[in-house]
Specification:
Elements lengths: L1 H37 L3 H61 L2 H46 L18 H9 L10
Helix pairs in contact: 1-2, 2-3
InterPro entries: Snf7_fam
Keywords: Coiled coil
Protein name: Charged multivesicular body protein 1A
């Protein structure tokens, strides 16, 4: 079980590394978009923008997969912990049976104290596990949402690849963000 836990943690780290690489590649493509637009090369800018979007989506997918693997890792960690706690609880129960059969009040009291401690440990592990499951998505979402809010759609000095008279203003921004060509699906 410990080997599985290690493999899951290692896999999650690899997926996070791939997500960072895809994000870096996306930013490089965005820089190419900016350069192409400054050179008034709209067609190349569109290709670079498609690449940037693809890399960004790839990074998000890697990150989503890393998050899922991390969730499985947490559940496996919880199972390992529960296995240990269950083993300890079984030992305490056997000790309690022995103490009750002898009717030694000191032994019964000591075993009951151990039993209560095990139950408290179980409650702590369970509540921490539930807390991690609830808060993990917030940690993953916050940086992404901050990036989206801070990133401009188009710099004001960039020329539009569309004739403004042909499109309404709201449609211009959305058209620039959509990949061109058949077979592309909007996320």
């Amino acid at each position: 079980m410990d080997d599985t836990l290690f493999q899951l943690k290692f896999t999650a780290k690899q997926l996070e590394k791939l997500a960072k690489k895809a994000e870096k590649d996306s930013k490089a493509e965005q820089a190419k978009v900016k350069k192409a637009l400054q050179q008034k090369n709209v067609e190349c800018a569109r290709v670079y923008a498609e690449n940037a979007i693809r890399k960004k989506n790839e990074g998000v997918n890697w990150l989503r997969m890393a998050s899922r693997v991390d969730a499985v890792t947490s559940k496996v960690q919880m199972a390992v912990t529960m296995k240990g706690v269950t083993k300890n609880m079984a030992q305490v129960t056997k000790a309690l049976d022995k103490a009750l059969s002898t009717m030694d009040l000191q032994k019964v009291s000591a075993v009951m104290d151990r039993f209560e401690q095990q139950v408290q440990n179980l409650d702590v592990h369970t509540s921490v596990g539930c807390l991690e499951e609830l808060t993990a998505p917030l940690h993953a979402l916050a940086p992404l949402l901050c990036d989206v809010l801070e990133a401009p759609v188009l710099p004001p000095h960039c020329p539009s690849p569309f004739d403004p008279a042909e499109l309404p203003p709201a449609a211009m921004a959305s058209q620039l963000l959509l990949p061109a060509g058949p077979g592309w699906a909007q996320n």
